[in-house]
# Entry
Amino acid sequence: MERQKPVTTSRMRKMKKDGIPISMITAYDYPSARLAEEAGIDVILVGDSLGNVVLGYESTLPVTLDDMIYHTRAVTRAVSAAFVVTDMPFMTYHGGTDTALANAGRIMREGMGKAVKMEGGKEIADTVAAIVRAGVPVMGHIGFTPQSLHQIGGYKVQGKNSAQAEKMLEDAKALEQAGAFAIVLELVTEELAARITGELDIPTIGIGAGAGCDGQVLVFHDLLQYGSEGPAKKFVKTYANLGQQIREGIAQYVKDVKNRCFPGDEHSFHMDHDVVEYLYGGTKRS
Ligand code: KIV
# Structure
């Protein structure tokens, strides 16, 4: 697909103003980022969902800053137009502003990232402001925040009652005030997500937050059913079944090897006939 100009934070803000939806997907390595870029995605998130879908952990909590930097480098090598955002992992922005600044700096310098994403509302607004002041664009993330999984007590939809809704609206405004360029709303009721979206000048990107957000994000492995074929998540639409295709392909390969159907002559290399003569005296060993 023909790419337009690189996506920037100001372009995303203009997209919101012009009513143009923002498309975002996660990617964690060179080939997946390259495919997303070629498909015309606006934003690639090197999400700490890496822990679940790539590294096989049960949550995002064990993911380290080094993991995020390593995967961000692979993604940024593949991308020229999409805007790359990297999650700051669990507990890398709660130990004081200096630590948060140093960690965001490592993502930008070593990972060659373009922006960071941080989970939380009002309580992290000062840290967000400090990172933005240092020149690093910050995407906020409220609603269900996977790094607080154990505090929340499970994968629960947020914003169902008026107290939760009030708090989330205040959190969104605090993040905008702190300089965040966009906010992810995860597992938020559609009504509240639409209200937050209407109250902010910066774009909201929803995941399980209904159709009223300025953009949508899904996890690569969920929307393509690539090694993520557990019980269907209500908010995920699947667009391909890569897991099935890959499994079938590998099973066929195993069969071909066992039956000596692979490699065929078309996959083999040959030497000139006179060299065969010289080596084997005309009788090629089988
Ligand atoms: O890590 C991630 O993939 C995310 C998305 C769910 C938004 O934070």
Notes: The longest helix spans residues 162-178.
